[in-house]
Amino acid sequence: MRQIPLVIAHRGASAAYPEHSRSAYEKALTDGADGLECDVRLSRDGHLVLIHDRTLDRTSDQRGPVSQRSLAQLRDVDFGGEPILTLDDLIELARGADRPVRLLVETKHPNRYGKAVELRLLALLRKHGLDRPREDAPVQVTVMSFSPLAVRRVRALAPALPRVQLMDLIPPGLKPSRLPFGARIAGPGLELVRRRPDLVRRLKAQGNDIYVWTVNELRDVDLVVSLGVDAVITDRPGEVRSYLGV
Ligand code: G3P
Ligand code: CA
After folding, report:
1. In the predicted model, what is the mean pLDDT of residues 82-101?
2. Which residues surround ligand 2, an ion (CB under 5 A)?
3. What ipTM score was computed for the predicted complex, to two decimals?
4. Which of 73, 111, 118, 137 is close enough to 69 for a disulfide, judged by CB 3.0 to 4.6 Å?
5. Where in this chain does the record put each GP-PDE domain (predicted)?
6. Which residues line the pocket of ligand 1, CB cutoff 6 A?
7. Residue 123's pLDDT is what?
């Protein structure tokens, strides 16, 4: 029997609502998503805010780098009719769900600001008692990064936290069967999976889990399910869940 993958909402149910917005995450929970994905960056005053890009330009009514605004200033920016969320806000939202929720946190700009992002992240998780996995926790946190350096930092700060090594290309020097720095979950992009399904098979055969992003077309759901992936990260969690029959 084929394994049914977890369905993770990419920036919330972001096909239906502004990405990273409260509406997008509430919709993802209503749709029954197993987990919520988010990107985090630091505000000027050191708060972790949910935004993908380095600047405000694409997703808001203002322009310029996120890192040059304080949280109070960012709270005044209009993101498609909604205010910015902090990671703290999202954790509170997830805690209020009627079931345990997975939270996949991707750290952005890990190379530019030293380990400030990971330090703030772990401090916040510690505050919520989420810095080590517990079966009875209302929120199960996994940290993700394209940067092996960031994955290594998370291992040093919180060895028990699950970590995803994201990859859009095969990282130079990666032995296809071994992830760097003790990550046990590989996060290949869909394009990489299409080009190199053998990589997925080999990583799985070595005991790694596979979380694929961003799977929005149903024919691609068929492909990744046939490869036995463990999670699909999608902008359309409701549609993907219906298609999977869950
Ligand atoms: O979930 C991983 C995926 O989000 C990575 O790509 O650019 O959407 O952050 P990106
Ligand atoms: Ca992301």
Report:
1. 98
2. 39, 106
3. 0.99
4. 73
5. 5-244
6. 10, 37, 39, 52, 106, 166, 187, 213-214, 233
7. 97
SS3 81: coil
Instruction: Scan for tokens 């060895």, then name that residue.
Output: 159
Between CA 179 and CA 25 the distance in angstroms is: 30
Using CA atoms, how far residue 30 sits from 5, 10, 94, 238, 241, in Å, is 18, 15, 12, 8, 12
Q: What is the structure's pLDDT at 71?
A: 98
d(CA 16, CA 12): 9
Q: What's the CA-to-centroid distance between 52 and ligand 1, angstroms?
A: 8
Q: Give the DSSP per-residue string, 91-135.
A: HHHHHTSSS-EEEEEEEPSTTTSTTHHHHHHHHHHHHTT-SS--T
Atom of ligand 1 nearest to the CA of 108: 9
CA-to-CA distance for 194 and 105, rounded, in angstroms? 25
Q: Which residues contact 4 (CB under 8 A, 6 or more apart)?
A: 225, 244, 245, 246
Residue whose pair of structure tokens reads 């985090």 in the numeric block: 40
Catalytic residues: 10, 52
Report the separation in Å between the CA atom of 123 and the middle of ligand 2, taken as the mean of its atom positions: 21
Cα 83 to Cα 121: distance, rounded to the nearest angstrom: 21
Pocket mutation for ligand 1, best pick of 6, 7, 8, 10 (most atoms within 8 Å of C-beta) = 10
How confident is the model over 193-234, as pLDDT tens digits? 999 999 999 999 989 999 999 999 999 999 999 999 999 999
Positive or negative: CA dihedral 136, 120, 96, 90: negative
* Tokens at 215, concatenated: 């799977």
DSSP β-bridge partners for residue 165: 145, 186
**Cα of 1 from ligand 2 centre, angstroms:** 30
